[in-house]
Amino acid sequence: MSDTSDFRNGLILRFKNDLYAIVEFQHVKPGKGGAFVRTSLKNLKTGRVLDNTFRSGESVEIVRVERRKYQYLYKESSGLVLMDNETYDQITVAESYFGDGQYFLKESDIVDVLLDDNEQIITVEIPIFVNLMVEETEPGFKGDTATNTLKPAKMETGATVNVPLFVDTGDFIKVDTRTGTYVERVKN
């Protein structure tokens, strides 16, 4: 067993019979009373963030995980097919591990798969930002940059993202996969 002195950002621990990753932590030593560690924990299954306080030196169960890079190949009815870049083994992963970010994945994108000691998938982390081509949107006109008005645009992956009026069909944009929002137009 480990204790709170082993905390670091990204550490995965078993808490309340679930797996949580430490998003951030802060060791606090008040003038009166015992020290404690204030943490923000992200549930790896649901993605919800929980704030919790541990007493300094309290025992916690740290889960050892292995992070492997996989290449996204294609989608089928039972899930998304990924290929290990080192062994070329293919696995099919349920869509629930990807969340809404799966709609922004292109073939050959690299994802991180977190595995526990029993080679069971804990979670799949997709890139935070992806560059996608706008496949279909209403045409933009010169001078449409003055307001923050947005219009829907269909991406090459089939996802719909709200983009500024100056973005045209064929443009490449950067999309935040956590929120599904437009970040900026990029040169390709």
Task: Please outline the helices and strands.
Elements: E1 2-3, E2 12-15, E3 18-28, E4 36-43, E5 49-55, E6 59-62, E7 66-76, E8 79-84, E9 90-93, E10 110-115, E11 121-125, E12 129-137, E13 150-155, E14 160-164, E15 172-176, E16 181-186
Antiparallel strand pairs: 1-6, 2-3, 2-6, 3-4, 4-5, 7-8, 7-10, 8-9, 10-11, 12-13, 12-15, 13-14, 15-16
Shape: flat
- Find the CATH topology of the largest domain: SH3 type barrels
Corresponding CATH architecture of the largest domain: Roll
Largest sheet: 6 strands, antiparallel
Gyration radius, in Å: 21 Å
Describe the structure concisely for a colleague.
The chain has 188 residues and is mostly beta strands. It has strands at 2-3, 12-15, 18-28, 36-43, 49-55, 59-62, 66-76, 79-84, 90-93, 110-115, 121-125, 129-137, 150-155, 160-164, 172-176, 181-186.
Describe this structure in words.
This protein has 188 residues and is mainly beta. It is flat and about 65 Å long. It contains no helices and 16 strands. A hairpin with a 5-residue loop joins strand 4 (36-43) and strand 5 (49-55).
Keywords:
188 residues, mainly beta, SH3 type barrels, OB fold (Dihydrolipoamide Acetyltransferase, E2P), 6-stranded antiparallel β-sheet, 5-stranded antiparallel β-sheet
